[in-house]
Amino acid sequence: MRQRRIAYLTGTRADFGLMRSTLSAIDAQADMELTIYATGMHLDPLLGHTIEEIEKSGLPLPRRIDVESGMPSGGLTAINIGKIVIALVSAFTVDRPDIVLLLGDRGEMLACAIAAIHLNIPIAHIHGGERSGTVDEPVRHAISKLAHLHLVATSESRERLVRMGEQENMITVVGAPGLDGITELACHNGKEVFSKYGVGGDSPVAIFLYHPVLQEADEAAEGARAALDAMLAAGLQVLALRPNSDAGSVGIIEVLEHFSAQDRITLVTHMPRSEYLSAIRDAALLVGNSSSGIIEAASFGTPVINIGSRQNLRERNANVIDVPTDPESVALGIVQALATPRFTTENVYGDGAAAPRIIAALRQLDLSDPSVMDKANAY
Question: How far is 128 from 119, CA to CA, in rounded Å?
Fold first, then answer.
């Protein structure tokens, strides 16, 4: 029996980290063949050249999809979506994957969905049906409307896709793949990780991960500055990671580098996922607007100060405190978080067993049925 060819496109350190356990599980299946295509931030030396992490992962060596480099902007993102579409049409025409697997809401994933559907290749989409209220949300929903098989994280997301007109029998709740094995992956002593990156002393440590929002790109730097001022005023040691490469990231990076040059924070380009998860587990706080705060941090009970609109409307665990971008609000959130017992209940995003459910859904998809490719609203 021929192996079922599964293609996965990765554009950032974040999505690859979330999917690594699932990709490893797919690669281990005798009846499946995995191909990884790497693009976007993975190829940028200034962002850690994280394609090397994929190459060292033990997974099949990734195929590179080159994009334009330059000042991050909405325009550059749109140009690169077009470039990725063109490159993947050529790659898929040769490789002929049976299923294209996508995660989330980034432009790279939208480009991959556009290429796949026009080549009559079924698309399986993970984390569809979620809200955010920023540009991520329409991109996520656009991918969902192009996708054929929906592998969602929560029951609420499933119901939302049903209301969007997706076929109920093509939607499966699998949980968030980023929760698979995170307890085992967080295998380092947090203090040793902090020390490795130059954070020492007895003061509580806050992890800071703050990404720009396209519609608010001009305010991104000020939001980062306000958060840093509030954390430092609260006596926290700050371990900050550089943001993604979207419009507004340059301003955030300038602020981070300014604080780092004054030795007020420690700035890191990239952390291996095992170290990152260990740091989240043992930090006093995770501050910023990353989906890590919404999804992964709850599995460790870590308090999260979620700033601004980037994760607006997404399902929350009780460890998340939402605040506006001004320093006074961030400061109040920090006080509240440090005074609140750590989160100890189940994570709404799943039980850490997404991979076997995803594999079962990919295996059960009937590729001989032409109706699989039919896309029509159910209402």
Answer: 22
246 half-sphere exposure, CB direction, 13 A CA radius: 23
Q: Are residues 167 and 186 in the same domain?
A: no
Q: What is d(CA 178, CA 16) in angstroms, rounded to the nearest whole number? A: 9
Give 321's Cβ-side CA count (13 Å radius): 25
Please indicate, yes or no, if residue 72 is contained in any of the structural domains. Answer: yes
Give the pair of three-digit tokens for residue 328.
């006074």
Closest listed residue to residue 193, CA positions, set 313, 304, 273, 83 = 273
| Whether 46 and 88 share a structural domain | yes
Is residue 378 in some structural domain? no
| Cα–Cα dist 290/310, whole Å | 8
Q: Specify the CATH number for the domain of residue 108.
A: 3.40.50.2000
Give the model confidence (pLDDT) of 197-213 as tens digits: 999 888 999 999 999 99
User: Which residue in this structure is represented by tokens 């009937």?
Assistant: 366
The helix or strand, by DSSP H or E, that contains position 348, with its residue range, turns out to be none
Give residue 75's domain range. Answer: 4-177+352-373
pTM, entire model? 0.93
Alpha helix ranges (H) inside 96-135: 107-118
Of all residues in the chain, the percent with pLDDT exceeding 90 is 88
Phi and psi at 296, nearest 5°, equal -75, -40
Tokens of 95: 């490789």
Instruction: Please report which confidence band the pLDDT of residue 214 belongs to, taking 50, 70 and 90 as the band edges.
Output: confident
Has residue 347 been placed in a domain? Answer: no
58: left (phi over 0), alpha (psi -120 to 50) or beta: left
Work out how many domains the chain is built from and give that number: 2
Cβ(23)–Cβ(34) under 8 Å?
A: yes
DSSP bridge partners of 173? 152
Tell me which DSSP letter residue 299 carries.
G
- Rounded Cα distance between 103 and 350, Å, is 16
Half-sphere exposure of 29 (CA within 13 A, CB side): 21
Residue 305: closest CA among 279, 330, 339: 330
The span from the CA of 288 to the CA of 252, in Å, is 12
